[in-house]
Amino acid sequence: MDKKAFRSMILLLFIIVLLIGFSGYLNFLPSTIKSIILVLFVLLFIFYESRRPVKSLKDINRVYQRRSLFSRKKAIETLEEGLQLESLKDNEKLFLSMQLALEYYKVKDYEKACEAFKRVVDEVLRTDYIKIEEKFLIKLVGSYILNNKREEAQKIYNRLLALGKCDKSKVVEDMLKNRPS
């Protein structure tokens, strides 16, 4: 079905290009009709792209980038859908989990952000080659603090630090020290 739809799209594009290309010489299509044909093609292409199946990390990123421009909720749905793909490798799932945690953080859903950050931390602790950057660590700890889980944030930070999974961060330590009044 997907290949057939793609072939149809290519054939339609070819016909449109021929019509537009030769319309000046044959003078049978007014410019308004040419514009309408182009708009229809663009709309058909967008419809085709939206129906295209998501099979790989590349597809997920394509859809995620497009949806995140207009709706964080749709971007989150795309990332969650992507995490369900069995074809992804562990490092690709980790990447999507990190993106998901950051999206929840951006929409200020700190409870779900904490859950997503926890999955990321668990995966980071299972691997040898991954180290958490300070920018990500700040958002991780911030999510826990904003979700009233300061002690848990402290434990996670200390564990990551002890295992060499992150560098010591003055910003994070200041966040953990500062108690709300």
TrEMBL record:
The keyword Transmembrane applies. Keywords: Membrane, Transmembrane, Transmembrane helix. The chain crosses the membrane at residues 9-26, 32-48. InterPro entries: TPR-like_helical_dom_sf. SUPFAM superfamilies: TPR-like. This is Tetratricopeptide repeat protein.
